[in-house]
Amino acid sequence: MNSENVANHIINWLKGYANNAGVKGFVVGVSGGIDSAVTSTLCAKTGLPLVCVEMPIHQDPSQVSRAEEHIKNLKSKFDNVSSVKTDLTESFEVFQKAMSKTEDHALKDLTLANTRARLRMTSLYYVAGINESLVAGTGNKVEDFGVGFYTKYGDGGVDVSPIADLVKSEVFALGAYLEVPGVIQNAAPTDGLFGDSRSDEDQLGASYDELEVAMKQQEDGISLDDLDGREKEVYVIYSKLNNNNQHKMIPIPVCEISEDLKQ
């Protein structure tokens, strides 16, 4: 991939979109991961105002330190970058206490993880509103259109998706070109929604490199019968996630009512 060409294209696309929308700039939630680091750097390079937002909720200290290092690095390079840190831990705890209880701990943990993402989305839109800016999403192609590894109306609730046509390996390549801090480039990808150090691979059952291969295989029409071993195992994982998460990837179904029924 020609990272310079891709970066310049995204930067120009972001500037054009913001100008056409009549907004001042962008807001990005910075987590300490490669996707948010690349997205925020691209937004910073537009020259338009960028607000980087940290939103810890019982966050793993290593994620917090990576996010802080990245924001500090951006501020040292770009005069148009500012930041806000909003600790949502207390808000999350209040919400959790107000909701009904369940004995299904696994389901509760997953639901609360999604709640964290939705609290963050609400916070990003508040910051965007008072700064007359757009929320820039940080999802990549494998997450957004392959396995659906994001929260509907959480990190999936954005105004623009600058890196959603790039697979994870391409995002890492862009991160290297943009000189994202090495500690972020070398960190295992994680959504940080469970308050621990579990990685995306732990949750998905396969690495992004493996999922990229499976995504390409499905696009090329390769069937399960054509594969064996680990490739076959990952293809099954990818296909199941892709099928189960189609509700995130397609438009909201609308029950259409014919004029005949209305009469």
Corresponding CATH architecture: 3-Layer(aba) Sandwich
Work out the helix count: 13
| Intertermini distance | 57 Å
Helix content: 55-70%
**Share in β-strands:** 5-15%
The class by helix and strand makeup works out as alpha/beta
What descriptive keywords fit this protein?
single chain; 263 residues; alpha/beta; Rossmann fold; four-stranded parallel β-sheet; 7% strand; globular
Give your account of this protein's structure.
With 263 residues, the chain is of the alpha/beta class. The protein has a single domain, classed as HUPs (Rossmann fold). Helices cover 55% and strands 7% of the residues. The protein has a four-stranded parallel beta sheet with strand order 3-2-1-4, sandwiched between helices. Helix 2 (34-44) packs across helix 7 (168-177) and helix 10 packs across helix 11. The chain is globular and about 55 Å long.
